[in-house]
Design brief:
- Helix content is 87%, strand content 0%.
- The chain has 104 residues and is mostly helical.
Length: 104
């Protein structure tokens, strides 16, 4: 976490330079301010995270595992479960059958 603190001024100076390079555009300012705020939050919350990690008995490996579990869960949300697909297809077939009955 010391690494973040040491590099904060360097990153802010780079972003300030980039902001000036883009002539102070709105998007440049938006990105700069958000990045700066994110670095500040990291710097402020790092001690709290360390204290909670110690209290709960968890560490970096646990966070990596949680992140992988979240990614797996979110990837699973991209597609519907097979039973939902089967139910929807069945209902579509029933609807089509019903339409055919009344069109004849």
């Amino acid at each position: 976490m010391i690494w973040i603190s040491m590099h904060l001024p360097v990153r802010c100076n780079y972003l300030r330079w980039w902001y000036q390079l883009t002539n102070g555009s709105i998007i440049g300012n938006f990105i700069y301010q958000n990045y700066r705020q994110a670095l500040e939050r990291i710097q402020i919350d790092t001690p709290h995270l360390a204290a909670l990690s110690t209290k709960l008995g968890i560490g970096g490996e646990d966070y990596e595992r949680y992140l992988e579990m979240e990614r797996t869960y979110l990837m699973g949300l991209r597609t519907e479960p097979q039973e939902v697909k089967a139910t929807a297809e069945y209902m579509e077939q029933l609807f089509e059958l019903n339409n055919l009955r009344y069109s004849i």
